[in-house]
Design goal:
This protein has 162 residues and is an alpha+beta fold. 54% of the residues lie in helices and 22% in strands. It starts with 9 loop residues before the first helix and ends with a strand.
Length: 162
């Protein structure tokens, strides 16, 4: 009995065997032509009393972090202004820009907190996007592959993958 060559992947071994023995079309039909693509899928969270409380705490901690960063930047600015080797106007310009960015983030977090208070329980909030690997095969309908899919979680548990 003839020993077959060992290939790193079993499906390659099967395909190689069929091709070697003249079964090209059968090998392609059995294996199929396919590829994998990366698709972004949105993740939504159903708002409950617990998740609302958690999100509120997260937003408040972010707000406090940005506020501390602004205070730290002002401190660093005063420290650098005492040094004579750097232009005071350049220091002022750079630090003002960074502080302005933090203030904008603080305003955005404040807006999100206000919106969170308005939203009723049961509302779905967009949280993030995750990447998923999707297999595309010949003959598959593209609109079914690339249709809008969503993952819905409630209190940390996936309740729907639609």
């Amino acid at each position: 009995m003839r020993e077959r060559e060992q290939l790193p992947f079993p499906f390659l071994q099967f395909t190689f065997y069929l091709l070697k023995n003249g079964h090209r079309t059968e090998a392609l039909r059995k294996r199929g032509r396919n590829m994998k693509i990366i698709k972004k899928i949105p993740v939504k969270q159903v708002l409950t009393a617990d998740s609302k409380k958690q999100l509120s705490q997260d937003f408040q901690s972010r707000y406090q972090r940005y506020d501390r960063e602004c205070q730290q930047l002002r401190f660093e600015q005063r420290k650098l202004e005492k040094r004579s080797d750097i232009s005071p106007s350049e220091i002022e310009k750079r630090f003002t820009q960074e502080i302005k960015l933090r203030k904008e983030k603080m305003n955005w977090v404040e807006y999100k907190l206000q919106q969170l208070e308005i939203l009723p329980e049961g509302s779905e909030l967009f949280i993030e996007e995750v990447e998923a690997i999707v297999e595309v095969t010949e003959g598959a309908r593209w609109d079914e592959i690339y249709e809008h899919q969503t993952i819905v979680i409630k209190d940390g548990i996936v309740i729907q993958a639609r």
